[in-house]
């Protein structure tokens, strides 16, 4: 049964790939566009940037369509009465770690064509699982996985820091294009604290540690940015702003590293900076204030450049224990507030971030910090910002005496079921891509065939943009040799000037079916791009009556009113 279902799903996916059509041939590669030179960019004059590598192996491209098997109206209405609807809106993402070659590239020094093939394979797999976003680490240690940067190329790309891909391409441009062609958001993930990864790490002569040695603290065999210096915080914000200006990212993402996790016997020696900048605060409060100032500066720099780009942080799961503060969680573990000087709850409640994704890497049986206890606490403390839960997929099947829940094949599904019972939980991010790929205890299959069987659209963020686009115009349908062809006109710009960023096509069966757009089981396809105004339904039964609905979505995923056409 399992093999039959998988084969059927793959055949249907292949059948639908060419459904969405543009009125002119699809351009899969953009011609080079000249841009004004940004102050933080140091281009390589000998190797002009290109979106693809000149390599022997061709990189497969995907038509920009995500399609699912439609469900007949009668079946859907019967199911609706028995079980809750699957969510139409849900953030579904995975972390792709580049540091130490955890997820991508698989090793240092791969040819660019092989690097590209690996990303294509990863994104294909994630699309097939039903994910709608990727969170890719593009700066791991004052380095860059992108061309338009003042910082040196990462050592985990070509094997030596500062060494550019050869043949040349821009990995970030390539990854963004590949993600968007699969209807997945691309969130650029930065590490902000470390400038070197280890004592043996490759460090290029152009690294900031040599240009600004007074900016760094030695701790744990690494050089860390001294966040107490205003010029350091401004530098980090400028690195982020440079990416926002020069790349078509959907979000900017930071993880849990601010001040370092404590190492026995070591002291973070920032006394002189504290004495010069403490403003009468106790040292712990001063450190927290430094992080708060950085978070605000990052938010402001993103908004100033592209207001639609989202800003999210994935902190350590515990803000404070209840034993330290009555408003903390009923847990007994490390505390981000005291140990990392990160007031994570404040950032969400004050609206400084657009989403918070606490790393709840514990099982439901972990006594010191049970999964449900911590998630429930965050649902009450995330303010009006999106709450996504960070799942420790790498722990699945790797239980221990202290946290035995991970031995159980039911642990991971139970976490997702619990999340969907919480109104405030808007999605999940999984660490990391390698674990989903290796599929411990069949978690990838659980997502693909169960929880993510039906597509979900990214939830909107009304505090950034609450104005939906206008609906598509002049929807028509016609029989063709391939099936039923739908075609429509782009909508006029909405009051905020935004048009359509993509379109969603729904199909309902019957002469007078109930048009129920909240049920994702009726989603037939997602057509990416404002110019993509045709779709061919190759699964239509010539003997049946259908009603099709098409809606427009803007970049922040606001949905227009539908336009409808009847067939037969």
From TrEMBL:
Ranges for domain Glycosyl hydrolase-like: 90-407
Coiled coil residues, start to end: none
Keywords from the named record: Hydrolase, Signal
Lineage: Bacteria, Pseudomonadati, Bacteroidota, Cytophagia, Cytophagales
UniProt protein name: Glycoside hydrolase
Pfam families: GHL10 (PF02638)
Stretch list, region Disordered: 26-61
Composition skew (Low complexity), residue ranges: 26-37, 47-61
GO MF term set: hydrolase activity
């Amino acid at each position: 049964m399992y093999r039959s279902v998988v084969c059927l799903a793959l055949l249907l996916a292949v059948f639908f790939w060419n459904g969405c059509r543009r009125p002119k041939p699809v351009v899969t590669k953009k011609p080079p566009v000249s841009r004004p030179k940004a102050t933080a960019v140091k281009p390589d004059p000998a190797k002009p940037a290109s979106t693809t590598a000149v390599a022997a192996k061709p990189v497969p491209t995907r038509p920009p369509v995500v399609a699912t098997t439609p469900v007949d109206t009668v079946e859907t209405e019967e199911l609706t009465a028995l079980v809750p609807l699957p969510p139409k809106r849900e953030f579904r993402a995975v972390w792709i770690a580049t540091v130490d070659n955890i997820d991508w590239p698989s090793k240092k020094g791969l040819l660019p064509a092989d690097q590209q093939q690996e990303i294509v394979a990863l994104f294909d797999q994630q699309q097939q699982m039903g994910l709608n976003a990727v969170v890719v680490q593009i700066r791991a240690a004052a380095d860059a996985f992108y061309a338009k940067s003042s910082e040196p190329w990462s050592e985990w790309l070509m094997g030596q820091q500062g060494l550019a891909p050869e043949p040349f391409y821009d990995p970030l441009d390539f990854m963004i294009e590949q993600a968007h062609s699969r209807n997945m958001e691309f969130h650029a993930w930065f590490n902000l604290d470390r400038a070197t990864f280890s004592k043996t790490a490759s460090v290029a002569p152009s690294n900031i540690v040599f240009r600004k040695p007074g900016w760094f603290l030695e701790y744990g065999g690494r050089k860390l940015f001294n966040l107490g210096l205003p010029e350091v915080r401004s530098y980090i914000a400028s690195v982020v702003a440079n990416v926002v200006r020069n790349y078509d990212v959907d979000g900017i993402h930071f993880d849990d590293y601010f001040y370092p996790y404590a190492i026995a016997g070591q002291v973070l020696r920032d006394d002189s900076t504290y004495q010069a900048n403490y403003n009468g605060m106790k040292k712990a409060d001063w450190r927290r204030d430094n992080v708060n100032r950085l978070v605000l500066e990052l938010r402001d720099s993103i908004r100033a450049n592209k207001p639609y780009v989202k800003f999210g942080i994935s902190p350590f799961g515990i803000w404070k224990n209840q034993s330290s503060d009555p408003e903390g969680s009923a847990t007994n573990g490390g505390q981000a507030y005291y140990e990392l000087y990160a007031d994570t709850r404040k950032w969400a409640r004050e609206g400084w971030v657009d989403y918070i994704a606490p790393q709840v890497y514990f099982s439901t049986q972990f006594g010191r910090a049970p999964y449900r206890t911590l998630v429930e606490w965050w649902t009450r403390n995330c303010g009006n910002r999106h709450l996504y839960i960070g799942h420790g997929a790498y722990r699945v099947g790797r239980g221990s005496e202290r946290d035995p829940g991970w031995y159980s094949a039911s642990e991971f599904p139970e976490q997702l079921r619990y999340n969907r019972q919480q109104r405030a939980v808007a999605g999940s991010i999984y660490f990391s891509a390698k674990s989903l790929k290796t599929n411990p205890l069949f978690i990838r299959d659980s997502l693909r065939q169960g929880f993510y069987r039906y597509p979900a659209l990214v939830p909107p963020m009304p505090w950034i943009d609450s104005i939906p686009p206008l609906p598509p115009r002049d929807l028509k349908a016609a029989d063709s040799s391939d099936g039923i062809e739908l075609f429509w006109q782009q909508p006029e710009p909405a009051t905020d000037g935004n048009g359509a960023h993509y379109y969603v096509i729904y199909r309902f069966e019957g002469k007078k079916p109930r048009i129920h757009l909240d049920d994702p089981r009726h989603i037939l396809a997602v057509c990416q791009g404002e110019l993509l105004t045709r779709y061919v339904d190759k699964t239509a039964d010539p003997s049946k009556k259908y009603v099709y609905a098409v809606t427009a979505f803007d970049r922040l995923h606001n949905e227009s009113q539908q336009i409808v056409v009847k067939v037969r």
